[in-house]
User: Fold this.
Amino acid sequence: MDNKYGQLFVYEDLHKIFNLYLANPDAPLDEILRYLSESNNLKFPAPEPVFLLRAQDRRALGALYHYSRHQASDASEDHLTGIQNAVRAFENFRGQYSQRIKDPD
Assistant:
C-alpha cells in the first residue's frame, strides 16, 4: 500500500516510542516502530490502513454527515456522541477559518 502521508500516531504512542528509544538509543527508529506495530502496541499499527478527514477539506463535513446518518441505527451512544462532537468541531473550524477551506490534495 502506498504510504503517501506516513503513519498516524496518538499521544500515547509517542510516549511508547520515546521510552523505547531512551532504553535503546542505538536502535534505528524504523526497528522501534516495526516492533511496536508487530506487537500491537500502537493505536494504529502498520500496515492497518487509516482514512483521515481534515476539517480544511471542502468535502469532509459532508462525509461526516453521511457517516453519522449511516451509523445512527446501529452504533453505540458513545460512538454517536463522538461522531457528533467531530461534526461540531468541523463546523466550528469551517466558521472560524473559512479562508482555509479547500479541495483536498
Summary: The helical segments are 11-23, 29-38, 60-71, 77-96.
